Amino acid sequence: MIIEFAGAGIEAAEKSLTTLTGSWGYPPEPLPPAEPAGGRDDKGVDPVAVASLIVSVPSAMLAVADITDRILKRRRAGELIEHARQLNAQQTTVRLVHEDRTIDLATLTPDQLLDLIANQDPTT
């Protein structure tokens, strides 16, 4: 996920958002340099390892873990959106850069933010 700042007080906004996400254990990372078109090294997945992993984890445990994970992510998304709204009041806009458009983070609900992230291409 790429977050972009615009307006007055960008440095303070970046610092406060870094503090918030860092408290969750996710410090922001700078964007990696653009990769040349032909330089990707695709690695295969061992089907035996994947099959043994799937068989070894009972489905009930996965369902509980998914619900717990969604609750935690929803709470964090709410905190992030509330923080963006506070920054909006200070004339700083926080935008989510998503594929072909940017979205004002303060206008989203936690569920909308999670859905946008879930539908995002994992290579970006």
Q: Could you walk me through the main structural features you see in this protein, from its secondary elements to its overall organization?
A:
The protein is α+β, with helices and mostly antiparallel strands. 52% of the residues lie in helices and 14% in strands. It has 4 helices and 3 strands, in the order E-H-H-H-E-E-H. It has helices at 10-23, 47-56, 59-89, 110-118, and strands spanning 2-7, 92-98, 101-104. The longest helix is centred in the middle third of the chain and has 31 residues, at 59-89. The radius of gyration is 18 Å and the shape is globular. The termini are close together. 9% of the residues are buried. The model has no long low-confidence stretch (mean pLDDT 75).
